Amino acid sequence: MNLGTLPPVLVDIPWLLLTAVLLPLAVWWLRAARERQRRARLARYAESSALHRLVMITDPDEGGRTVRLMLVVGLAGLALAGPRWGLARGPVSARGIDMVIAIDASLSMMAPDERPSRLERVKQEVRRLRAMSQADRVALIAFAGRSYILTPLTGDDGAIELFLDNLDPSVVGQAGSSLARALRQGTELLLASDGSADRALVLFSDGEAFEPIEDVTAAATEAGAKGIHVVTVGFGTAAGSTIPVQDGTETREKRDEDGRVVITRYAPELLEAAAKAAGGTFIPANASDKATRIRGALRALRTATRTLEAREDHVPRFLWLLLPALVLLAYDTWLLTRRRTFRTSDTATAAPSTPPVVLLLLSLPVALLSCKQAPDPASLFADGNVPAAIAGYRAQMANGDSTAGTRYNLGTALIGADSLTAAAELLDMVRRASDGETRMRARFNAGFAWLTMGRQPQNPDAEAALTAARAAYRALLTDRPTDADAKWNYELALRTPPPQGGGGGGGGGGDSSNEKPEDPSSSAGGLDQKQAEALLNSAAREERDVQGRKQRQGRTPPRGKDW
Question: pTM to 2 decimals?
Answer without folding.
Answer: 0.48
